[in-house]
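hiii so um. not sure if this is the right channel but i have a protein structure encoded as tokens and i wanna go backwards to a sequence. like what aa goes where. can anyone help
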């Protein structure tokens, strides 16, 4: 094909999309507001590692990059819960072997995708070229340099602050876009590896016990009901920690006089250390740069963004966070965006995608894509918000812990049973909307059982599995 594609944004989704399109023979120009990350350091305070799971892996597999990226990923088999007294408890993600999530470097993955895309003759990256406006009628992109560019179509993968989406808001009368922010923000912190200062090559040869100060094969969570901290392992032996905390303190009258923690109360070294010593005493000795990291790194905001429509007459499409940004608590932001790319690519092989000759009917493709993806991105956005409260509150709850133990036993015993988490994370063949509906029904039943039964080891698994199958049949019947 000789069609020219314009991609706005050279982040994870935009770079992967460039590879997919180049494989089909398209000419691709990618415009990125930032500099080439291969030539400079990544800004501190931004998530430097991400949870790569089956939906994202499936998209990478299509372009032959799954094994390459997983070679330097750190597998995480479950949530390691840290109580206030320092005790830990592992809640496995799945009862089946081979089901785990992977901690990967954001910058490492992004750089690998850019390098792979540039292997194709038709792909060109233009760094330090910010999109400053988009004309929905002509399909022309205006750049900060003053240049104007256009192609057969434009795909915006420029994130939650998408300039293209903002242009659509102003130019399309019925365009809807809104963001809902949590009262919580986040701050990135750091736990170094034992071999901090050594070369990556030498560190990689050491055993995990030598490299990591915490169990490397878990996502660590310090749930404290009103707030929490998590830690994901990095390949070099360090952990990226994220503190999720209310931005502003709640007036005492609204909390019955309790002292509520918030970012606006942690204003100096003493208040910070007192807070961490009280809430995360087992983590403090592992964080020698806590004070420096806290007061140097920015406080990020957490929000869900929804928009509609995602396309205009085949001239432009919003993809990934530019269309449906979500909070990070299901670890599906990147995986969902990668699935966006894979689904869009699959539609180019469908009857009706090619109009005349070798020309793609982008209007038809974008309409099909949006109809397929919108119900599912809505579903994962809602589940991501719900999972914040699960991670912050429920993981420390005994009934919830019993439910997770029961789900693990069910998955070990019945290969056809998938918990809600497993359906979202390990079933790339199952739409998010189905996982949400089916998972919520299962959760209600299992929570009721575990609220009454303190010892899940004595529960008849066959009886429960039969009840769960009935739920699924009722779901199917209700849709007929």
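sure thing!! here u go:
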């Amino acid at each position: 094909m000789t069609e020219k594609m314009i991609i706005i944004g050279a982040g994870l989704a935009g770079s992967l999309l460039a590879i997919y399109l180049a494989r089909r023979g398209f000419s691709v120009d990618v415009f990125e507001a930032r500099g080439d990350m291969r030539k400079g350091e990544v800004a501190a305070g931004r998530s430097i590692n991400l949870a790569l799971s089956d939906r994202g892996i499936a998209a990478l597999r299509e372009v032959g990059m799954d094994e390459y990226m997983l070679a330097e990923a750190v597998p995480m088999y479950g949530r390691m819960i840290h109580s206030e007294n320092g005790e830990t408890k592992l809640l496995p993600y799945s009862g089946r072997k081979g089901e785990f999530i992977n901690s990967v470097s954001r910058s490492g993955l992004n750089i690998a995708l850019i390098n792979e895309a540039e292997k194709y003759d038709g792909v060109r990256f233009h760094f330090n070229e910010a999109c400053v406006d988009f004309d929905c009628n002509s399909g022309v992109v205006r750049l900060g340099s003053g240049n104007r560019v256009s192609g057969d179509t434009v795909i915006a993968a420029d994130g939650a602050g998408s300039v293209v989406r903002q242009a659509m808001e102003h130019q399309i009368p019925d365009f809807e876009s809104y963001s809902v922010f949590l009262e919580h923000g986040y701050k990135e912190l750091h736990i170094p590896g034992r071999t901090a200062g050594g070369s990556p090559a030498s560190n990689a040869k050491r055993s995990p016990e030598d490299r990591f100060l915490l169990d490397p094969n878990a996502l660590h969570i310090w749930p404290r009901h009103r707030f929490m901290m998590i830690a994901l392992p990095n390949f070099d032996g360090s952990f990226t920690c994220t503190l999720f905390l209310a931005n502003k303190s709640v007036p005492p009258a609204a909390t019955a006089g309790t002292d509520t923690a918030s970012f606006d109360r942690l204003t100096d070294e003493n208040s910070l250390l007192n807070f961490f010593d009280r809430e995360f005493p087992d983590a403090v000795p592992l964080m020698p740069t806590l004070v420096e990291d806290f007061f140097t790194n920015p406080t990020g905001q957490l929000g869900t963004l929804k928009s509609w429509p995602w396309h205009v007459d085949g001239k432009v499409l919003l993809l990934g966070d530019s269309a449906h940004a979500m909070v990070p608590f299901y670890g599906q932001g990147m995986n969902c965006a990668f699935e966006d790319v894979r689904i869009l690519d699959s539609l180019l092989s469908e009857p009706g995608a090619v109009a005349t000759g070798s020309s793609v009917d982008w209007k038809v493709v974008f309409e099909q894509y949006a109809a397929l993806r919108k119900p599912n991105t809505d579903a994962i956005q809602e589940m991501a918000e719900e999972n914040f409260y699960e991670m912050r509150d429920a993981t420390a709850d005994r009934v919830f812990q019993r439910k997770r133990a029961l789900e693990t036993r069910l998955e070990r015993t019945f290969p056809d049973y998938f918990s809600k988490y497993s359906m979202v994370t390990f079933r790339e063949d199952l739409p998010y909307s189905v996982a949400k509906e089916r998972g919520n029904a299962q959760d209600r039943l299992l929570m009721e059982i575990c609220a009454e039964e303190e010892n899940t080891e004595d529960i008849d698994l066959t009886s429960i599995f039969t009840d769960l199958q009935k739920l699924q049949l009722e779901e199917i019947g209700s849709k007929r």
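oh and The radius of gyration is 23 Å.
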